[in-house]
Specification:
The protein starts with a helix and ends with a strand. 41% of the residues lie in helices and 21% in strands. It has a domain of 198 residues: Ribosomal Protein S5, domain 2, CATH 3.30.230. 49% of the residues are buried. The chain contains eleven helices and 13 strands. It has a six-stranded mixed sheet, sandwiched between helices. A four-stranded antiparallel sheet has the order 10-11-9-12. Strands 2-7-8 form a three-stranded antiparallel sheet, sandwiched between helices. It is globular, with a radius of gyration of 21 Å. A hairpin with a 6-residue loop joins β10 and β11. α2 packs across α3, α3 crosses α5 and α8 runs antiparallel to α9. By secondary structure, the protein is an alpha+beta fold. The chain binds alpha-D-galactopyranose. The site of alpha-D-galactopyranose has 10 residues, from α5. Alpha-D-galactopyranose binds next to α5.
């Protein structure tokens, strides 16, 4: 990969020597969906595919950026002293956003560079291609400008770039798992305190299989922000009625049931029901995993999907068809949508000897039902963002 990307770099920028290569993975979340921004627990892991960046410093203040994934956009140029959002710059707004937030925080970025990106995460598939390029930019800028930042700082800066520069009000799960991922481990992250624990994924003769609906989705044009707003309104109703909570995930199913009549909208009530039940499911799921009860873990994944379908309403025909076809297969321990929803991917735990059959049967059923072709990846869990 290194050689191939260095050759491309030379072709595009006509520059050579002093090149450096960095990588940030994509992520998949096993359970704990749409609760990171409600102060809940999530359980994601970093993947072995992601985004690569090759960089060479320049002596002036110009940045020239090129993505092999969006070649039609050509080389995008801007200056380190004037970083503004520009619709036409498309994908390049992600690296720009990270640089802008860093500069706003007082970090010194005083010369330009040429940078080539290449990603092998399917775009818009819910495996966090955008958080991947953000965290990648973060570690590159830290390295070449020698900034005093640790990985958690970079994670927070990347989330801020997505919230403030791109305008998607995402939580911290994606950037965190991409920055802090660990080979063969998932991360149990408390999104309220950012306390985290690695959990070795011992799946006992089974693997994680990701299936892409190939229904494209951009977070910006999805209903993501409106779901988040609905949760904020529900929280406000509860606080206004005298409850002393800062996040919806501080509720238990018991306190939710006792107080749900204080949430003013019907929608707020069912969204909160998902949030609270999902948070409880994550904790029970981890207990099951710790006891080696993979089947129990899988059942909770299935329940998570039902809650995202019926209460949070972020699935849709494509995700539901894939998951339902997966549930019918022999050797499937659990299956659910992963990420923001509204298209994107599902995650399943499948017994190793059944994977080929799973891919064949689920692919056929899905195609028959939706007319779309799904892609399947047997996921390898790898380390977080790093210099190669
Ligand atoms: C997207 C967001 C995350 C999280 C998930 C849903 O991936 O970027 O912060 O909210 O959706 O769990």
């Amino acid at each position: 990969m290194k050689e191939k990307l260095f050759i491309e770099f030379k072709k595009i920028f006509m520059e050579d020597g002093g090149l450096e290569l960095f990588f940030a993975p994509g992520r998949v979340n096993l359970i704990g969906e749409h609760i990171d921004y409600n102060g809940g627990y999530v359980f994601p892991c970093a993947l072995d595919f992601g985004t690569y960046g090759v960089i060479k410093k320049r002596n002036d203040k110009k940045v020239r950026a090129y993505s092999l994934n969006f070649q039609e956009k050509g080389i995008i140029e801007f200056f380190v002293d004037n970083i503004i959002f520009n619709e036409d710059d498309d994908w390049a707004n992600y690296p720009k956003g990270v640089m802008k937030i860093m500069k706003d925080l007082g970090h010194i970025i005083n010369h330009g560079f040429d940078i080539l990106f290449y990603g092998n995460i399917p775009n818009g598939a819910g495996l966090s291609s955008s958080a991947s390029i953000e965290v990648l930019t973060g570690i590159i800028i830290k390295d070449i400008f020698n900034l005093n930042l640790d990985m958690i700082d970079i994670v927070k800066i990347s989330q801020k770039a997505e919230n403030q520069f791109i305008g998607v009000n995402c939580g911290i799960m994606d950037q965190f798992s991409i920055g802090m991922g660990k080979k063969d481990n998932a991360i149990l992250l408390d999104c309220n305190t950012l306390a985290y624990k690695y959990a070795p994924l011992k799946l006992d003769g089974a693997s994680i299989v990701i299936a892409n609906t190939n229904k494209r989705r951009g977070l910006g044009d999805s209903k993501y922000n409106s779901r988040r707003k609905c949760c904020e309104d529900a929280l406000k109703d509860l606080k206004d009625s005298g409850m002393k909570i800062d996040y919806l995930c501080e509720l238990t199913m018991e306190t939710f049931n006792k107080n749900k009549n204080k949430i003013k909208s019907e929608e707020g009530i069912i969204r909160t029901k998902h949030v609270v039940s999902e948070n409880e499911r994550v904790l029970v799921a981890i207990e099951k995993l710790n006891k080696g009860d993979i089947e129990g873990f899988g059942k909770l994944m299935n329940e998570s999907h039902m809650s995202l379908k019926n209460d949070y309403e972020v699935t849709g025909i494509e995700l539901d068809s894939l998951v339902e076809a997966s549930w019918e297969e022999d050797g499937v321990i659990g299956s659910r949508m992963t990420g923001a929803g509204f298209g994107g991917c599902t995650v399943s735990i499948v017994k190793d000897e059944k994977i080929d059959m799973f891919i064949k049967n689920v692919g056929e059923k899905y195609n028959k039902k939706t007319g779309l072709r799904a892609d399947f990846y047997v996921a390898k869990i790898d380390d977080g963002a790093r210099k190669l």
